[in-house]
Amino acid sequence: DVQLVESGGGSVQAGGSLRLSCVVSGYTLGNICIGWFRQSLGKGPEGVATIDSAGTTTYADSVKGRFTISSDNAKNTLYLQMDSLKPEDTAMYYCAASGFWGPGTQVTVS
User: Which residues lie closer than 8 Å to 74 by C-beta, 6 or more apart?
Assistant: First the structure.
């Protein structure tokens, strides 16, 4: 079975940092394209960042220069380092790959 489980969310003040983790099972992380998405109240889901099997990364314009996606293939874990957080980054954050989604982790920036 494919499972993705996020962790690392929380409440921080603007300008602070958080690191999200997503443990993946059922896939070999280095063989797939996987990404982080977020959804805030009253809005649709938004792509945040992706990383593919070649290590190529993409970012939404709203997070470029502040967020960094990375993976540890030995741990089959995906990360999202979030720096210089803004109130508009408040959302539920999900990792997803090939149509599978984790349950999400809440990030609140005040």
Answer: none
Sorted by sequence, the CB contacts under 8 Å of residue 15 that are 6+ apart come out as 84, 85
CA atoms within 13 A on the CB side of 44: 1
Residue recorded with tokens 């995906």: 78
pLDDT tens-digit readout, 72-96 = 999 999 999 999 999 999 999 999 9
Secondary structure class of 89 (helix, strand, coil)? helix
DSSP output for 16-65? --EEEEEEEESS-GGGS-EEEEEE-TTS--EEEEEE-TT--EEE-TTTTT
Find the radius of gyration of the CA atoms of the chain: 13
The share of the chain scoring above pLDDT 90, in percent, equals 88
Residues β-bridged to residue 39: 92
Phi, psi of 14 (to 5 degrees): -55, 135
